[in-house]
Each structure stands twice: as structure tokens, then as C-alpha cells.
Amino acid sequence: xxxxxxxxxxxxxxxxxxxxxxxxxxxxxxxxxxxxxxxxxxxxxxxxxxxxxxxxxxxxxxxxxxxxxxxxxxxxxxxxxxxxxxxxxxxxxxxxxxxxxxxxxxxxxxxxxxxxxxxxxxxxxxxxxxxxxxxxxxxxxxxxxxxxxxxxxxxxxxxxxxxxxxxxxxxxxxxxxxxxxxxxxxxxxxxxxxxxxxxxxxxxxxxxxxxxxxxxxxxxxxxxxxxxxxxxxxxxxxxxxxxxxxxxxxxxxxxxxxxxxxxxxxxxxxxxxxxxxxxxxxxxxxxxxxxxxxxxxxxxxxxxxxxxxxxxxxxxxxxxxxxxxxxxxxxxxxxxxxxxxxxxxxxxxxxxxxxxxxxxxxxxxxxxxxxxxxxxxxxxxxxxx
Length: 385
Description:
The protein is mainly alpha-helical.
């Protein structure tokens, strides 16, 4: 997700790895082109690792000193695997430890193909990730290298073939199903509360325990949504609508303001969540989310039948009757959308009740009001507890 602390998380991981002697190469992805190609990235990575190892281990001698200065080309980029292996073996011999070379890739969304990407951008991404994947899979060297990729949505792990544009559907994502997905978009309550209180103090605000509890229930610890809802609180205080001692009722007022002024606060939900630019099937995602938003807890076994019933009614409304094959096709799309939204942590399943819930209640309120036209008479905390 956007602006959720991905870079901060990578920085913390960088420090933790370096403290244990791991050589860490961290870089921020930039749009790939003939002027800055995939082999330029590979060149920067191998040179970066060589420099970092020499810095950490003063008496380390590079197996091949040319890695300090060499630049790959389209014809020599395949040497990356060999150079990584030599560097790792030299490091292992020097330290007598099996230390992985760690690669931290930030802002991967910038290079991951999406709607509107050119054929060159597809090719550049596939070439880069193809070389990285091939290096990870070198026979007999499973612990040589580790890769962490940070992006708004884990599409790098979910998309097999690119279907955004039929012209480029022959491109296959080299990193499909290669990662363990670790969502970081929701903060744990304690760390989140410390953040909110610390920022609040800078603005002269003090939160009661109950007000913090409700604020967390509404945002589930999403940093960007929390920041926008807190902006509503700051604005209300500046306008004299509330005091600096934030009570439960003030949170209700802030939620109302958040939903009523989309250009200042809640457009983020539309552009990042509702119109997710990285989704492979936005329409199906939206149908699932819209139906889930009608209830604060949706029985799992009722969701897909209800959506197919809606499809039936829509077909009859335009003068046709959906065939069984069309229904099965729709069912598959909606099932995939539901699974995708669970993987993205947009939906959670309550194992005890057998119900689906939209993870962030404030987002559910937005869907109800802005998409479905459901205006709740009063913002009630009990609705989401």
C-alpha cells in the first residue's frame, strides 16, 4: 500500500542484517528504459555488494577485482550469476560463515508492468527479474542470496502471466510465487498508539484511552489512513469544534468530516483501494467489496451465491438470461477476487463466526456512503466492535 512505511521497514531490516555481518544492497527502483536498463541495475547491485563487503571486512580480497568497476551489457548480463557466486564463496571463505548476500528492493511498483506499460517496460522487468530468479536458483547454493521486494500490493508474487494487455500476455512474471508475503500495512496497536500520541503532542493534543481505542478500531493501524483521520481531528481543533483533550465523541466527529470532504481526506481510499491500479480484475474486486460492505459481518457461505444472484438479475435486466457456463465463469472470477482480497489483507475471515469482514472499518464506511449511497444515521462505535 502507498505511504505505509515500506521504506522505514526496509531500513530497519537493513540495520538488523548489517548488525549480524550480512552485506546488504538496498536500492530504490526507477523506471527501466534503454537509457537505464536492467543490466545497469545488475551492475549497481554487484558493485554495491563488493563495496559493502570491503567496508565491513577490512582484509577481504575480492575474488575478481573487476566487479568494482565493471558494467554489464545486454550481452554480458548473464555473468551476474557467476559474479554473485564468486563473491559469496569469497565471503564464506573469509568469514567461515554462510552469510547471504541480501538485496532489498524498494518501490518495486515502479518497474512492475501495469496497464499502459510499453512492451519495452515488460521486457526490461522480465529480464531483470529473470536474472535475479536464475541466481536464486543456482543449484547447490540455496543460501547464497536473499531478496526482499517492497511494493504497495504483492502483485509480484500473485501474477503469473500479465493480462493487463493482450498484446503482452505472452510475457511471464519470473518472480511468480517466489516470495513469502508479509503484509506490513497494518501496525500493531502499541506501536501505532505511541506514534499517534507522539504526533498529537506536537500539535498540543491529548487522547483518552477510549478515543485511541476507537481510532485504532476504525483504521486497524493503517498509517496513511490514520494520518488522514488525525488531520481531521487537527482541523476540528483549529476550527474550535473540539478541545485539545480528544474524547470518544471527537472521533465520531472526525469520521464524519473524513467522509464528507473527500478531496482533503478520503480520495486516498478511492485511488489506492477502490480503484487499485495494480489489480488484475478491478471490477470483480469492487463487486466483492461492495457486497461485503452492506453488512458488518458477512456469512462466508452466502457471499458468492448472492453475487451470482445479482449477476442473474443484471442479465435479465438487459433482456438476456445468463447461461450456466456464464455463471460458472463469473463464479470463478469472483472466487479469485475474494481470494486475492484476502491475500492483500483487505478482507479478513473470522474463523469462529464463519464471516468475512472488510479489514478497515473506515474503508467500509466509505464504500457504504460513497459507492452504495447508504447513509448511516449516526457513526456508532458498536458497529465495528
